[in-house]
Amino acid sequence: MQTSMGNALRCVYLSPHLFMFSKRFMPARGTKPLPRYLWDMEDLKKQTKGKYTHEPLVLHRLGGRDPKTGRKVNQHIGGGTKFDYFMVDFHRRGPKEPGITYDERVIEVRRDPNRTCFIALVAGWEGKRWILATENMKAGQIISTTCYVPESPQEGREGNAYPLGALASGSIINSVEKFPNERKYPSTDDDVFIVTAGTCAEIIRHQGDFVIIRLPHKHEFVLSKECMATVGRLSHAEFHDKIFGSAQMHRRFGYKMASGLFQKKDGYLGRKVRRLPPPRTLVPEKPPQEMQSFTLTKEQQSGQTGIHRMPQLVHAGFNYREYPD
C-alpha cells in the first residue's frame, strides 16, 4: 500500500484498480476572525440615544459571549476590574473651504483602560470630545481639522486631520476612515483603520479619486480621497513591551490565562512566505432587509402540486389525467 499527501487531498493506493481518496476540509486562508464580544454596543446606543457624549458611560460586559444567543464565542476573555467607557470620535470633520480650519485645544491626555493607546480630550466651539492621541500630543496643544482637498498634496502636521487626498505620499497616518462622509455613534474600532498603540499606516500613491494606503501588516487598500485621517503615529508604543508579571495581574485586565505555553510559528517548521495580495477595495455593507410576515394555507404548506393536491378519497370514476384545453 502506498500513500501520497497533498495540500487538501490524500490518496491511498490499494491495488492496480482500486484507489481510496480522503479529502481534508481545512479552513480557507484569509477568513475573517470571529468578532470580539467585549461589551454590549446595543446597550451603549440606548444610553446615548445615537448621539455623541464625552461623559463616561457604564458598560454592560459580555465576557466573550454573543449578546443574542449567549453562547461563548471568544475564549480567554472575562473578569477584570470594571472601568467606565469613553466614547472616541473617529470621524473628525472640518470646513471644505481653502484656508479655513476647525481648531481645538487639547485639555488632557490620559490612559484609556479599554484601549491600548492614550486618548485626548479636546474642546472646540462645537463642544468636547475624545480622540486617539498621537505620540507627541500634549495638553495645551492646538490641533486643526480641514476637509479641503487641494490640487497638490502636502505634508501634514502631527495631530491634525486631513482628507487622504490632501496628504503627500509617504505620510504617516492613523484613524483612517474606511468610507467617506460616514458619521455614526457610538463608533467602534472596526469603523476605521489603525487604532492600536504605536501603529501607523503609510500613504503609498494617489490614483485619480482614490488613495492607496499600506497597513502595518503590509496589505494595501484603495480608499476614497475624501476619507479623513489623522497625521502621526499613535501613542503608548511601549504597551507591547509591558510585562504583566503574574496570572493575577493578567486577569485584572480582563484576560483569562490559557493552559500551556504559546509559541508563535516560525520558518523552522516550514512556514510559507506567500506573495502579498493586490490592493483591495472596500465595499459598504448593504442594510439588512426588512422582515416580512405572511400566512400559508394547509394546501400551500403541503408543497404538493398537480393531481397530488387532491384528497386521498375521491368519488368513483374520477380521472386523474389532465387533458389540454
Automatic annotation (TrEMBL):
Keyword Membrane: no
Transmembrane annotation, as ranges: none
GO biological-process terms attached to the record: mitochondrial translation
GO molecular function per UniProt: RNA binding; structural constituent of ribosome
Annotated Large ribosomal subunit protein uL2 RNA-binding domain residues: 64-145
InterPro entries attached to this UniProt entry: NA-bd_OB-fold, Rib_uL2_dom2, Ribosomal_uL2, Ribosomal_uL2_C, Ribosomal_uL2_RNA-bd_dom, Translation_prot_SH3-like_sf
Entry keywords, A to Z: Ribonucleoprotein, Ribosomal protein
Keyword ATP-binding: no
Protein name, UniProt field: BMA-MRPL-2
Organism: Brugia malayi (Filarial nematode worm)
Gene assigned in the entry: Bma-mrpl-2
